[in-house]
Amino acid sequence: AEAAAEKLQLYRRDPEGWRGCRSTGEVAVSWRPSSEFAGNLYKGEGILPASPQKIWECIKPVAGGLRTKWDQNVKDFEVIETVSDTVSICRTTTPSACMRIISPREFVDVVVMKQYEDGTMQSAATNVEHPLCPPQPNFVRGFNYPCGCFCIPVPG
Predict the structure, then answer these.
(1) What is the C-alpha to C-alpha distance for residues 110 and 1, in angstroms, rounded to an integer?
(2) Three-state SS sequence of 68-114
(3) Pairing outcome for strands 87-94 and 105-115
(4) Residue 148 neighbours by CB distance under 10 Å
């Protein structure tokens, strides 16, 4: 989990190579080739008119959290094991897509939540296997490279 958090910090600090691919009035999505796998990294950025704490309540990876209510790509989120007050093993499921051509997915990740001195909040995750969460029938087991979210306070 700590390695995933550090990897995300490296992506955040390195502005090189990101290319814009989509933008609305609220969100800009960029991509760049990954150095870890044959594919691309993606990041979405936006400024929301709310306190960082309110935004964090909507995105933090906790059981019973708000993400399953607003994110159509997250069907369910459960904690398999609590390792510490900031680290847990979690299972996330996604619904089928494209008129059920794409099967539902499940992801088992080790997740860490951090808060930094400047008020930034971060969740970082990466794939892990866990004996209490074997692959489930009717789901394709997905694999997450280091991924996560930052909630960064801005003045005003």
Answers:
(1) 6
(2) HHHCCCCCEEEEEEECCCCEEEEEEEECCECCCCECCEEEEEEEEEE
(3) antiparallel
(4) 24
Fold of 1-12+48-151: Alpha-D-Glucose-1,6-Bisphosphate; Chain A, domain 4 (3.30.530)
Sign of CA dihedral 9, 11, 16, 20: negative
Q: Is 33 helix (H, G, I), strand (E, B) or coil?
A: strand
Residue 155 has a pLDDT of 85
Phi/psi at 155 (5° precision): -55, 135
DSSP state of 128: -
Looking at the predicted structure, is the pLDDT value of residue 156 above 80?
Answer: no
The Cα–Cα gap between 56 and 136 comes to 30
CA atoms within 13 A on the CB side of 104: 15
What was the pLDDT predicted at 77?
94
Q: Tell me if residue 55 falls in helix, strand or coil.
A: helix
Structure tokens at 52: 């960082």
- Give, in order, the Cα–Cα distances in Å from 154 to each of 28, 63, 120: 17, 28, 10
φ/ψ of 26, rounded to 5, equals: -110, -30
Q: Tell whether pTM > 0.85.
A: yes
